[in-house]
Amino acid sequence: MLDCEHIHYAVGSKSILNDVSLAVSAGEVVALCGPNGAGKSTLLRVASGEIQPNQGTVGLFERALPEWKPRALAQARAKLSQESHLTFSFRVREVVEMGRFPHETVSVDDDIIDDCMKQVGICDLENRDYTTLSGGEKQRVHMARVLAQLTDQHSKPKLLLLDEPTSALDLHHQEVALSLAHRLCRERSYGVLVVLHDLNLAAAWADRVVLLKDGVVQKEGSPDRVLTEAVLHSVYGVDVVIVPHPTTGRPIITSGR
User: Fold this and answer.
1) Other CB atoms closer than 10 Å to residue 209's CB: what's the count?
2) Phi/psi-derived region of residue 12, left when phi > 0, alpha when psi is between -120 and 50, beta in every other case
3) How far apart, in whole angstroms, are the C-alpha atoms of residue 18 and residue 95?
4) How far apart are CA 252 and CA 200, in angstroms?
């Protein structure tokens, strides 16, 4: 689905990404983790086509991103940014409606918008002024918007890129957001690449974890192979204790102090 090969990206003399290769398959949740400044959000921007790498290639469904027409690309992949700046007094429903811009499906748009708002739990906010919402509420509105962007009447796989989607959310809505992404993978064969700082969320929901540090991939694989005490000490420089979750068996990371 998504193939990033030998990506190099620099700003002036500062290297941000150094020979990074990454793939995401349909039906897979890949968590991109690492310290601040590791290059996670930059890699997501490269993967979306928002910025061009200095070297390397990005392909989506075996076609290089520059070969895609903008409308077709918008229907095949969507990106939820860490911060979405919107200062006009749109109603919440109008913001979600913006996700339908790449489509010409007026007859079903209302149903799709209703369903996307329901999935993220914002139906009660439908007529609220977007600018009056809390940070977490705004993030959920934009989650509904990107879902509306990808929804169509076909069963083709899609790529969903999420940049720290849980950063402004409470515990309940963190679970709602990531369980929704996980369900879209399983039920609609979406591929999801999600930037997460919370390693326990990555351990709970990801099929694969990619650890970045200083713009280089340090380790990738299943959560139990990547999220180990030795690897995390090497990447983050802190001591942790790993214990298995009593129900799922997935790793739980706690401070070593």
Assistant:
1) 26
2) left
3) 36
4) 6
DSSP, res 153: S
The string of pLDDT tens digits covering residues 90-130 is 999 999 999 999 988 787 889 999 999 999 999 999 999 99
Q: State the virtual CA torsion across 103, 105, 108, 113 in degrees, nearest 10.
A: 20
pTM over cut 0.85: yes
Residue 103's SS3 state is coil
Closest CA to 241 of 222, 231, 255, 230: 255
Is residue 13 packed enough to be buried (19+ CB in 10 Å), middle (13-18) or exposed (0-12)?
Answer: exposed
For the four alpha carbons of 173, 176, 180 and 183, in that order, the dihedral sign comes to positive
Query: Rounded to whole angstroms, how far apart are CA atoms 65 and 47?
Result: 9
d(CA 242, CA 257): 12
